[in-house]
Task: structure prediction
Amino acid sequence: MMRKGFAAVLIVAMLLLGVALVSAQIVPEDDFTMTVRVESAFVRAAPSLDAEVVASLFDDDRLEAVGRNLDGLWFQVRRLGRMNNIGWVFNEVVSWDFLPENLPLTEFETGRTGPALLTTDPGFAAFMEDNANLRTEPALTGEILTVVPVGSTVPVLERNQDGTWLRVHYLGTEGWIAEFTVRKFANVFDLALAEGLPPLKTFAILIIPPEVQLAQLQRLRDFMTNSRALSDQLASYWLTVQRGETMPCAPPAFVEEYMATAQDIRELPELDRYLPQVTDGIFNLNVAIELLYICGTFNPDVVQRARNGAINARVIFDANLERLDNLEENIIIIE
Result:
């Protein structure tokens, strides 16, 4: 009796194990399931709105994608659990969570407008995250053949030496797109290297000594520290006036624009980002100074405007002084 019970348990265990093994084998590496997201849609015999209608779909119908067309805007599909493909659906009528570039290319002709013909899937594809100019060569000087639109998925044929340009096939036209316009894929160097490419251009790198950068930074810091102190004095001055006290008119000189030459910006490129904000601070500071040259009795709104100018200038200079401190730390680390 115990042997029969043991045998039964063993058989059940083996059956469960068998089910588990089978289940593990039939789970695809990529889940290409998609769901219809419109009230109704057509399945067509080819990836074209002009192709024959072969089936109808309805909201929340679930499908399995088995392939893509030349520009990746159409999916070849079948019903879940079925082996027969039913046709093609336009990507805008379905929702999905997989990467279209992982689907195989299964249709090579429909929609082709250029002379180049693909007959097999090259095994690599790129999803366009931005519009990209398709050029005759892997350089910005290359002639633009057409634009590959965002949202397309295109076959990738080859790469340049450093993987910054990809040669792709777009609806029968082959050319080069910049790699930064596509969704990143880890295996770019698995692509074949295109033959006959000119050597990559090299660029002279200008290295600015840290002490030169720090000198530029300190010059800007001194200017903003003095301007910040003046804005603080003026904010206090106009607050006193706002409270009804009589104050002497002793206007300081207007604050002049911070001067930076092209060489200054080469030595500290961050000046390009800081100078517009410094200019805003100077403008607000001069608003607070201007009324002192007029002197006399002011209405409360005018006094408030002068005080606000001083306060705004102080806020701007405080923020940028803090940014300079952070920048200085980075320069010292590089040093």
